[in-house]
Amino acid sequence: MKILVIEDDTAISELICMNLEAAGYAPIPLFDGLEVQRRLENGEDTDAALALVDVMLPGRDGFALMEDLQGWQIPVIYLTAKDDVLSKVHGLKAGAEDYIVKPFEVLELLVRMEKVLKRTGRGREKLLIRDVVIDLREHCVTKAGKPVALKPMEYELLVALAQSKNVAFSRDELLDQVWGVDYAGETRTVDVHIGKLRKKLDFYDVIRTVSKTGYRLEDTV
Amino acid sequence: MKLWKKMVLITAASLLVSAGASTAVVIYHAVRYNQEKTVESCEQQLKAAAYAVGRELDYEPFGSFSEAAADAYYAYVLQKYGASKYILIKGDEVVCNGTPFELLRPGDARWGSEEGCSVIQEKENQYILIAGRHVPATGNRDYKLVLVQDISSVYADIRGQAFFYLAIYLGIAAVMAFLVFLMTRRVLLPLRELEKAARDISGGRLERRARVRTRDEIGVMARAFNAMAAQIESQFRELEAESERRRQMLGSLTHELKTPMTSIMGYADSLLHVKLGEQQQEKALSHIYRECGRLGRLSSKLMCLIGMYDNVSIRMEAVCVRDVFECVANLEEENLKKKNLTLICACRSGVWRLDRDLFESLLINLIDNAVRASRDGQAIFLTGGEEKISVRDQGCGIPPEELPRVTEAFYMVDKARSRKNGGSGLGLALCERIAQLHGARLQIESVPGEGTEVTVRFPQMKTTDA
Q1: Pairs of CB atoms within 8 A across A/B
Q2: Domain A126-217 carries which CATH code?
Q3: Residues A56-95: tens digit of each pLDDT
Q4: Whole-structure pTM value
């Protein structure tokens, strides 16, 4: 899945690309506003599913790029150091799907991207981890072609981990994302469900425990 | 009490008092004069009458007249000279009285004096003049003639005049008081304008000035006030501009800090939480290292800039310019080699008064900028001349519309390129500050595509030939 990463600072651009690759996306780094405009006009990269756009760009700033990207119906998430309310309002009013202020956490970026993709109907339909296929539309999981029976919470947990694969979640993050912010359960619940997933899918070496943090679903990039 | 009320009251009161006093004096003198004139004329009459009466009484056969005949004769004589005015006294007895009055003490010595004596008596608003004198040439007989006349009319005249004067005086006083009131108001009008202007200015309308064109003290004060207002306004605008610059600088600073921080945090986060390949891990680490270096450079330049704003402890010393140039050329050697550039130094040897460290950093900053702007194989010229030092390159130049802003802190003409080449956006701001501390000025001339020349001009630099 193609993601446009429009960011003039090479270090940040590489950082984003590195993490997107790890999570299973195909990032395309672009550094200059005018370059983006030119490429879109030439019909290149118009099939991108999402654009991460820095507001302050050389050539043509992020707000101005909005119309070019909307022309191809590419949803936009702004990624910027400007964290004043006015800029946020301006960005969101102009049609951005989300607004992330630097510095950001990798997990936050991935989760927000996933939400935007889902909302705009561009979410991934199938997630593939080794021989396990998660069909997001049918809500079913197969391992080596054979269906695996998962309880609803186990399924949600697996999807959360698989959508941001290779990235570690803390137990609290998983509780928030899967069970909801209002859930008053303990982090033990997470451990129990992780244990069941490992057993049912034989994911003992796929869902890794990351010391001092939580869990990570690891897969080759 | 308001000033105009005070002025009107004081002026009107002093006018009234002085005019009233002088009028009173005039009236008093008029009274005295009229009175004296009347008395004098009466005395003259009396004198003449006494003389004439004396002559009549000397009439020889008179001595042998019977008492009744004598009384008749007295009456006849008085009648002859105006009996209604006179009283004739013989010894202590009134012998004939033609007046409607009665003399209380006919024996009074005053009426018997040779020179005559006069008294004015006031009774029930009637003023009566009583004058008496000895009747001369009457032998042994002691006769006195007393004149009694009602002189009330004199006083009545004067009283009438006095009322007339008073009416005129009051009328004029009223008119004067009104005029004084008008004039005071007029004179004080500019004060009110001044007050309004002051109120407006304290209310925030700094461009307001007092519209006073008089040449008096108030006018002088108004001009001083306007000058003060202008001074305050310009200082306020300066402060506003300065605080706006600071605000922008702070905003830029936050942005400049956030960019490397985003990288450092992001890579550290990735290293901690994301499964990365060995190569990627190395890349992340090297990014963290590089971005930390950038933060370090930024903070040291910033410290330098802030230090120079707050603490002006520069050490001016006599420095040989040629030494400085050599030193700078040595420091830049490596930097130049990377891009295959040549630095061409030319200067008259001279000793200038400079802070050596700061000045070296100024030149290094300028040369760094030139290096960033230049392409491989080009030359950079460092020239020292009379009262100026310039750094010229043959690089990409600066677009004319960007020129005025390049010395602003964190302003970068081409952000992406500048950062890649290690620019912080603070170099020229630093240079300008250093130049200022030396009493010098930065002058930047640039033609896009042909190159840039930055000149440091020293207006009053004392150079001594070594």
Answers
A1: 90
A2: 1.10.10.10
A3: 887 788 888 898 888 888 999 998 887 778 888 888 888 8
A4: 0.57
